[in-house]
Each structure stands twice: as C-alpha cells, then as structure tokens.
Amino acid sequence: MRTASIEEKRRSGVWVWQAITGVLLVILLSLHMIVHHFVVEGGLRTYQQVLDYVGNPLVVAVEILFLVTVTYHAMLGVRAILFDLNLSESQKALVTRVLTVLGVVVVAWGVFLALALFRAANA
Amino acid sequence: MAVPIQQKSTGARALQAWFNPLKRSAGFLAFVLMRVTGIGLVIYLLLHMVVIGNLLRGPEGWDALVATMKSPAVLVLDVILIAGILIHMLNGIRVTIIGLGFGTSSHKGIFWTLMAVAALLLAYSGWLVFTK
Known about the structure:
The complex is a heterodimer of chains A (123) and B (132).
Chain A: H1 6-38, H2 47-54, H3 57-83, H4 89-121
Helix pairs in contact in A: 1-3, 2-4, 3-4
Chain B: H1 2-17, H2 26-51, H3 58-68, H4 72-99, H5 107-131
Helix pairs in contact in B: 2-4, 4-5
C-alpha cells in the first residue's frame, strides 16, 4: 500500500480546513445576510440600529467568529489558486507569509472595530 | 534556466485555461465558477472591511453612506454579490460532498441541480433587494 507523501498530507490538511470553514460559513454567512440585510427595513442598518445589535456580547462573539472563519477560508482559497500557478518553493513560502500577514491585519481591524462599536453601544 | 521559464508558461496556461471556451464540461465550469467567484468575494471582503470602518465616523458618516448604498446602481451590485455568494456556497457544498467520496458518479447532476437552486434563491434575493 502506497503511503501519502508530505505534500499530499499537507494538501489534504488544507482541504479539510477549507471544508470545515466552508461549512461553518454556510451557517454564519447566512445568519449575517439575514440579520444585517434581509430582515432590516431598507436592507442596511442605520448607525443606531448597528449599535443596538452589537451591544450584545454574544453578537460580538459571533461576528468575530464569522470574521476569523471567512478570512481564514478566503486566504486559504487565494493560496490554493496561486499555488496552482506552478510557483517555486520560495514563491510559495512568500505567498503564504503575505497572505498570513494580510489575514491577521483584516482580523485585527475587524476585532478593533467590533470592540469599538460594542463600547460605544454600552457607553 | 529552462525550468523557471517552463514553470511560468505552465502557470500562465493554467490561468488562460479558465477562460477557454472549448473546455465546456460541467466539472470544468464548476471549477472556473468556484475560482472566479472566490476571487470576487475576497476582493469584496477587503472592500467591505474598509467601508464598515465608516462606522467609526459616527451616525453622520455612516447614515450618509447608507443613503448612497440604496441607489439602483449599488442594488444591482448587491444582486451580483449575492449571485457570487450563492454560486460559491452551493458549489462549495458540492466540492465537499464529492471530496468526502459521496456522489462522485453523479457530480454533473449535483452541479446543475445546485446551480438551479442558486438561480431560484437569487431570484428571491433580487426581489427582496429591490422591494424591501
């Protein structure tokens, strides 16, 4: 029986994470679209409606979970597309580093924003 | 020197193949749709994070922005965004099911069924976007 190479195991691990975050996103993105757009009159929350919503710590936790999940899924997806362009090992390493930094920046900005709005809602 | 040149041309060919009209199989169409919608959604995610930063400007900044977001041109973009989400999401479910080893023999049927579901959900979402 042939054993999987390190590269195959790595690709398989990435695929599993892409699938897990994808399944989570079906739930979290559907929830996000419904509560932020479809049930809101006019399709977008006003500033006061946003504060009323994010004043709940459970909502902030779910929004941050959504942000982390969607960012991780997005960066893994971009990485897979770029890796299919037959990059060299050093180029692959660079892509991974750049996408990791971009992902961390996006999540950090989103968490900062969520916490700032949570504080404003409860001030 | 020959290897890097060959690698570059292979990568470019892989990208060009996404838009090759001669490759018309359902599997290839699903692959291209997944990637094109994925890239579009990543660009939207980054733009969205910048736009919602306007919430820090308070009610004046955010509510003025919300008013401009209700123009017909932006609503059309919203429908395109929802189309991208539905295609990517339902296609992703198909990829996960196939990847787990289920329905491999009927993957074309699964693809077209899910795209039909996407079209129905898009029609309903489009109606909501323009009427609510």
